[in-house]
Amino acid sequence: MDRATFACSTAFFRDHNSSSQGAFCLPGGHVDFIEKVESFTYSDFFRDYLIPNHPCIFSAKITEDWGSRRNWVTWEGKPNFDYLLQKFGEALVPVANCDVKEYNSNPKEQLPFKEYIKYWKEYITNGYCSSRGCLYLKDWHLSRAFPEQDVYTTPVYFSSDWLNEYWDAVAVDDYRFVYMGPKGSWTPFHADVFRSYSWSANICGRKKWLLYPAGQEEYLKDHHGNLPFDVTAPSLRDKSVYPRYNQSQPPVEIVQEAGEIVFIPSGWHHQVYNLEDTISINHNWVNGCNVAIMWGFLQDELAAVQREINEWKDPIDDWHLQCQLIMKSCTGIDYKEFYNFLKIIAENRISVLEKGLDDEASAKNTPKAAISTLGMLHAVFDLKRTVKVLTSLSANEDFKKLDLTSLSPPPEALLHHLKAAIDTALL
């Protein structure tokens, strides 16, 4: 990131808070298409899409060198089932049934990949119909299971990825996925985990996206406050069930072609359809531009849990801890892990600022490699954003009620270290 962009972005955050994101509206539902990716810089993306939280589409030029685009697709543009079976046939994969609603999602099961491909072939042969329903392979951690495979390279625009940096560091999880499904498979209405950004690249096939800017989902809730399962369902026009639907904007619609990448802004709810037999690669990610939105989401989630079990507050001695446990079971993170998340991100950047870039920076897929690519000023930007959120977390009453003695370093010490590192870097 150059100095001009860094100065511009810093000024933006000084004058705008995360709540302004919900007021954003695309004129006429327009979404920018980035055709000349070779001349489109990270600073361009940061300024025009990350900071204002705007969606965009990258042309297929950005993925043309990926191994998956060369090997996973036949000359007709269809999934190369033979190649995929050869490489991944024995893997177990998560498969959702798009024809069944379970709570506000689709039920999942684990299937051998070779069984899923057999089903998919038969589904096509039978005119896209099966007694088993429409099955969609979703949220497959293929890169984690097959790290040696030449599948794709994360574009530089998405390289400031705190979620995967953190979960790689603790070796627990990741948010890199492969999706595969027949024509007609779909994903119900939702916003991404932690209100993160997401990017989705079509290896083959076409998708249709229905996008609602952050805040618009409030108009789509029913009289109980629940979001719809299917945002196209006729029942949304029933005012007795969805009283504010008429106040909502029409969705922003995107048809994504093979090879293209869609960038979905933080907190935007969406629904996605496969218009053809489709394979895609998807990442969820958080960075300094939207970590405040993630923190706001966690506060909202905890407040919702507290409301739900408020009647048990007096009988339960460790009520506040129980609320944290319930929140973690629902979202995957609690306040103490969020602190550790911020700590690891901050310490990686402090290490670079204090020690400089060593040989590790030249290695691919490391935090230092990303910082090396984006520059030292980006590391300072990340630390400034971390300080702002960590200051809010440290002052939060629910956080202070927890046993914080296990946190190392203590929040006040980490904040002091961060501020000192920023001051030194800016001298």
TrEMBL record:
Recorded hits in SMART domains, A to Z, give:
JmjC
Keyword set, alphabetical order: Iron, Metal-binding, Oxidoreductase
Q: Where is the signal peptide?
A: none
Cofactor dependency = Fe(2+)
* Biological processes per GO annotation: positive regulation of translational termination
Q: Name one Pfam family in it.
A: Cupin_8
GO CC entries: cytoplasm; nucleus
* Domain JmjC: from-to ranges: 143-302
Q: Which reaction does it catalyse?
A: L-lysyl-[protein] + 2-oxoglutarate + O2 = 4-hydroxy-L-lysyl-[protein] + succinate + CO2
The molecular function GO annotations come to:
2-oxoglutarate-dependent dioxygenase activity; catalytic activity, acting on a protein; metal ion binding; sequence-specific DNA binding
What's this protein's family per the entry? Belongs to the JMJD6 family.
- List the PANTHER family hit by this protein, alphabetically: 2-OXOGLUTARATE AND IRON-DEPENDENT OXYGENASE JMJD4, ARGININE DEMETHYLASE AND LYSYL-HYDROXYLASE JMJD
Q: State the protein's name.
A: 2-oxoglutarate and iron-dependent oxygenase JMJD4
